């Protein structure tokens, strides 16, 4: 997801990162 930083797609970037964080959070819980 961090590779999209230079692509200028901040919205899509945040969406992908947020999904990844949610998956990790759910997996840990």
From TrEMBL:
Source species, domain of life: Bacteria
Stated name of the protein: Acyl-CoA dehydrogenase
Source organism per UniProt: Amycolatopsis alkalitolerans
